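Example A, followed by Example B.
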Amino acid sequence: MIHLVTRLPLPYHQTLCQTLSDSYDGAFVAWFAERANEEFPYRSAPKDTFTQHYFSEVGYAKLFKELKADPEAVVILGGWSSPMTNKTLLMTTLLRIPVFIWADHPHPRKRGWVGARSRRLYFRFLARIVSGFLACGTPTVEHLASLGIKRRKITNFPYWVEVPKEWSAPTRCLGKDAAMRPLRLLAIGRHVPDKQFEVAIQAVALANKKAERELAELVMVGNGPERASLEAFAKASGCGTSVGFLGWLESDEVYRKLGETDALVMTSKFEPYGVVVVEAMAVGRPVLASEGVIAALDRDEGTGAVLLHPIGDVESLAEQIALLARAPERLREASAASRATAEKWPPERAAVIVDEILGKTKRGGMLLRRTQRDAAYGKRINEISHDQERIKRTAAATGGR
C-alpha cells in the first residue's frame, strides 16, 4: 500500500491521490492533517473516490497501526519539517518502512554560518534515514544536490494537475475586434507581502500610462491580511477600474477564471513552487513571473510560454505586458507553447515515476509485482509519448482550439 501523508487535500494533491489509487488498483491511502484551514477555507467536499483519513479526526495512532500491519507499506511524506513530518518519520524509522520525502524548494532565507551549517546537516541527516527525495521541479533537484545529497536519491516529481482534453486560445487572439480590448491578466494567491502583488499593480498602471489608454487590466483572486492595503494602493496608483479584487474562489472557479483570462501574473519574492503556474499552462495560458517563482523556472523551455522578469522589476513586467497586449499573434504562440509544455506532464506520468521509486525498495517491489505494474511500465511510457504527439498534431492543425 502507498501511504501519502500531507497537510491538506489541496486540488493538486487530490489529482495525484486519485491517479495513484486508480493506477495501483486501490492500493493507496491518503493521510491529511486536516480538511481545511484559514489559509485554504474550502467549502466544497472532495469528489474523489480514493481512501483518505484526517489526523484531526482519527489521530496518528491509526497511521501507526496500519503501517505496522501492512507488509507492502511505502510512505510518501509531504513536507520538510513539521509535527506531522516528524511524527511520520519516527514511525517509519521504528517500523523500517521506506519513506520518500516529497517537498517543494526550501525557502532561501539568509542564515548565519551556524544556521546554514545546521540546515545542511539536517538535510544530510534526512538523506541517511529516507529512501529518497521527490523534489518539485529541476531547480529544487539542483538545490538539494548542492547541499551534498546524492543525485541517485533525488527524483524530479513536481505537482500534478489535470490537463483538460479541450482548451482554447485566449479570445483576444481570435479576432481583430477582440485585440482592441485590454489584455486580461489574472493574479492568484494569498494577499501577503511575499507575493508582492503591488508590483503587478504598478506594472499595469505603468503599461497603461505609457500607452495612454487602458492597455491591460488585472483581476486579483485570493484573500489575506494585505488585501485592504492592496486595494488602497491600486486606487492611489490611478488604476481606476483596471484592477479588480474577487476574493477567495474555489478551485473550479479558479480554473474558470483562468480560461477567461489572457495570461497569469506572478510577482512573488519567492515561491517554493507555485502550482497555479502549471494550472494556467494546462489551459493554455502564458505566465509572466518573477525569477523567484520556482514553477516558472521549472517550466520555462524558452518557447515564450513563460516570460520571466527580475524580482520586483516593475519596468520589465510592464514591457512584457505591453508586448502581449500589442501582439495578438505573439499571445497566440505563447498560449500554444504553454499548452504544449503542460501536455508533457499529465497526471499519469506521476504513476510512471512512482513505479521507478517503488522498484528501489523491497516493499515497493512487492507492491509492484502484486499490482502487475512491472509489465505495464514500458507500455505506459509509449502511450504517454504517443498521446503527446497526437495532441501536438491536433493543436497545430486547429490553431490551438
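Example B, a separate protein, is given below in the same form.
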Amino acid sequence: MGALLRLLIVLAVLAVVGGYLLGYRVHDGRIVGPGGAVATAPVDSGHAREVGAAIGDKVAEGANAAQHALANTTLTGKIKAKMALDDTLKGSSIGVDTTDGVVTLSGTVATEAQRARALQLARETEGVKSVTDRLAVK
C-alpha cells in the first residue's frame, strides 16, 4: 500500500513538472497557457459539482486506505523496534507482517525461549488483535 501512495505522489509531481516545462503557469489563481492566454470556458456548475463529488469520494477512499496502511506499518515498526532492543532475541531472524492488527511472525530463532519472547513482545504491543506464529526453531 505504501508503494501505491509513493507512486501517486511521484505521478502528481511529474504532472506538475511536465506542465511547468510545457509553459503552463498559475497567475492570479488561474492557469495560464504557454501563449499567455488564460483558459476561460463556460462551466456547467451541475456537472462540476458531480465531478467534484466523485473526486472527493476517491480522495476519501485513498486517504482511508493510506491511514489503514500507516496503522499496519506503525504496528510492525513498534514490534520490530522491541525485538531489536531485546537481548533475548539476538541472532534471530524474525519477519513481522501486520494486516488489520493481526501480526504474523515468521523466520527462525535459535531456542524455544526466543520464540516465546518474540510472541510475548508482539502480543503485548498496543493495537495488536492477535499473533500468528510461523517461527521455526533451528
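On Example B: The chain has a mean pLDDT of 84.
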